[in-house]
Amino acid sequence: MKMEYPSKYSTDHLLPELDLDTEKWNQIPEEQVIAATVKAIEEGGIEVIRLRDGNQALAKIKELIPPGSEVMNGYSTTLIEIGFQELMDSGEHEWKDMKRMVTGENDAQERAKIRRKTVTSDFFLSGVNAIAMTGELVGCDATGSRVGAWPYGAGNLLLVAGTNKIVPSLDDALRRIREYTFPLEDLRSRNVYGVPSKIGKCVILANESQPGRVTLLLIDESRGY
């Protein structure tokens, strides 16, 4: 796998400090498994776009988001690895960066108001913690800031994930988060913020009633955790 934008908090850098079952929770499935998963997701009203690598994924994001759109994203190792976060931080785009509005507000009360509004952004981007072959997409977060936009709020939800997130069932998806994703994120949180993480709030997307609102950009590589 080519890591376009490596991060010291990507899976490869965190794994040596943990004893995790990578053979069970971090493998690229056979093509027939991926195809069956895509079919199940699309039957739930969620569009799936398969992409060869991170470069293609970033190019597709640029194509999908019109100039002038409000754009917000939660923390995502996958978005960092494909170069999306660097693009946002550079300011070399034609979107309204909602995260910059949040971090640029010094008044705590006003900053909280803006943060709440970000879940209704025109486009909200996020990684995915686990994908069930039965069609469910699962995301968990400590506070809910990364998954609050998923169910309804965001005008358009763009989810970006590697095929390494695919597991057989919803039960397996939740186990993947507890046994694999959470230990990695907890280690990252301790390193970055000096505090442990927690599984505070989870969202399961099983069906989407608004055509075109949710799109999964599925990368044929191992991305994120």
What's the short story on this structure?
The protein has 225 residues and is an alpha/beta fold.
Describe the 3D structure:
The structure is a single chain. The protein is α/β, with parallel strands linked by helices and 225 residues long. It is built from nine helices and ten strands. Strands 1-10-7-4-2-3 form a six-stranded parallel sheet, sandwiched between helices. The chain is globular and about 45 Å long.
The gross shape turns out to be globular
Strand percentage lies at: 15-25%
Strand ordering within the main sheet:
1-10-7-4-2-3
Query: Radius of gyration, rounded?
Result: 17 Å
Could you give the order of the helices and strands?
HHHEHEHHEHHEEEEEHEE
What is the rounded distance between the termini? 14 Å
Mean pLDDT: 94
Given the helix and strand composition, which structural class is it?
alpha/beta
Helix share, percent: 25-40%
Which oligomerization state do the chains in this entry correspond to?
single chain
Poorly predicted tracts of residues = none
Q: How can the largest sheet be summarized? A: 6 strands, parallel
Count of extended strands: 10
> Helix segment count?
9
